[in-house]
Amino acid sequence: MNDIKKKSEFKRKPDWIRVKAPVSKGYNETRNLMRGLKLTTVCEEAACPNIGECWTKKHTTVMILGDTCTRACRFCNIKTGKGNPVDPDEPANVAEMVLVTDMKHIVITSVDRDDLPDGGASQFVKVIAAVRRASPDTTIEILTPDFRNKPGALETVIAAKPDVFNHNLETVPRLYSFIRPGARYFHSLNLLSKVKAIDPEIFTKSGIMVGLGETEVEVLQVMDDMRSADIDFMTIGQYLQPTKKHVEVEEFIKPDQFVKFKKRALSKGFLHVSSSPLTRSSHHASEDFEVLKTARLEQLKKSEAKIQQDAPIDIEEMKKHNANYEA
Ligand code: SF4
Ligand 1 centroid vs 60 CA: distance in angstroms? Predict the structure, then answer.
């Protein structure tokens, strides 16, 4: 890792990072819809490079609890300050957006709300409930803050049974104090571990950005940590500096290194891994959810076959045994 830099400059993006400007009809329709429903998206607030592609397909990641975050991470473009008043119409507006766009899989995230007693957990629950009422077949993925020092908040959100629970580790533990000063690596890891322990049916997901000065060994260690927390799905994407005020990109990681990361992560037992320069937590979330479901079924089939192989069950013997009981 290089020394922390005081001055920040933009590094020229390599060819594999360039994306097209968002100009499509679908993009404009999505933007108008979000404005009309007074919904904020992380797509715009975080200046996501995939916005042209996603919004053309009407895939957005809605950001609840306002557009102002009570933390100040050095990589994040979302404005920081005192949190906005919680909008009571937000759950209904999110549900309407799902209906209008016929969304099959929604990703809901939020700013950090350290100012609220429950960190915003109850608003997550209300939004999930409103979406379920409006569109019971829509699957729900949440990308939450860490609910640090908010007792009971995590459990409240888990009880709402989202299909996917995502919380990003963002970077390697060594860089936390500089990149993510308000958070704690092991708290975040533990949060994901708890989700799985409380409700194993919920898929868990987490991601990191690379190019912040982490080493390959550190990334591999994060993979191991995630597996020890039983995380199902890992995402790895290139960090991009949103403005000159944000931490500078240390390195543009080459596409073949992302492929290497993906292979290593899959070999460690994740159900699914998305690793590419433009991977973001919610990029292709709907397609990834299908991959997750299929991978879990495959895994179950394999473990059943293994049990049968290790200790074959004699079906005829079992029937006789049951008949004795019934008699
Ligand atoms: S990748 Fe996620 S945050 Fe980026 S535009 Fe797509 S939905 Fe929005």
Answer: 6
